[in-house]
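Reviewer comment 2.1 asked that we show a complete input and output for one of the modelled complexes. We chose the NAP case, as it is the one discussed in the main text.
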Amino acid sequence: MTTTKMKKNKVAIVVSDSEESFKVKNKLIERIHQSGQLELDEFFPGIVISIGGDGTFLRAFHQYRNRLDEVSFVGIHTGHLGFYTDWLAEEVDELMEILESEQKRINSYPLLEITTEKSDGTKEKHIALNEATIRKSSATWKGEIFISGEFFENFRGDGISISTPTGSTGYNKSIGGAVVHPSIATLQLSEIASLNNRVFRTLGSSLIIGPEEDLSVHITDSEGTILTMDNLEFPCNDLQRAFFKISKKKVSFLAEKDVTFWRRVRTAFIGE
Ligand code: NAP
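Response of the prediction step:
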């Protein structure tokens, strides 16, 4: 956690399509117009405020993923307490006071860097906040999995998910992965319905790699392969390899509430 001093700040707002979220957006815009310290700028913001749920936050993240060095995010939830959204609609005034003050708390969390390699050798870099998955639209997906360049297993099944610590409570958890504290810079590989026999044999449980390690996948049959990154989905018929590591970039959260990660987990999945 660091404390920084900031000048007049430009703010962008990303909103879900609920009526409640639009009401909060209008209130925020009114307060920003009255403010001497903040102004609206959807193209080059220093602060991005997401209003909605974690899904809306993912949209906000990808809208500004090319400006991660300049941008800090704030999440207001208009549904339940989220993992990326902890301010309530009725707390807009309190939040504005913090955003207008000079000293703001910033917390940063790890991101997943994905490099894809097509059969013609073309490489592309991507970034994800929650996870990336590789699977097929139909039939089983097959791939050889390597940890830091060393062959680990021959996978056949619905697919695999590689999640960040903050993404570990998303899709990763639903497919049996562990919940990882976001202070641990690591990646988790989780299987999606692996098919085990004498040819294809996998560990059968999620695995969490070390902070200096990476994962890579050699896709043996790419026809019908789909690559997802958070809320985004890409058909990848000619994907040959994919590399996954902790990104050098981080996602920064401004004025996060003083709620422990485990309290968020309990509230979301177990109940108060
Ligand atoms: P969606 O299918 O409309 O919603 C997915 C759900 O996952 C929403 O309830 C969302 O919370 C929640 N969520 C998102 N990130 C989370 C996180 N880090 N921890 C706990 N819950 C989280 O899809 P979407 O809104 O576009 O979000 C894409 C994400 O959904 C993916 O990155 C993946 O993690 C997750 N997902 C989960 C499943 C599953 O659990 N079976 C399947 C597909 C995708 P809000 O209600 O607050 O928006």
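DSSP finds five helices and 17 strands in the chain. We note this here for comparison with the apo prediction described in Section 3.2.
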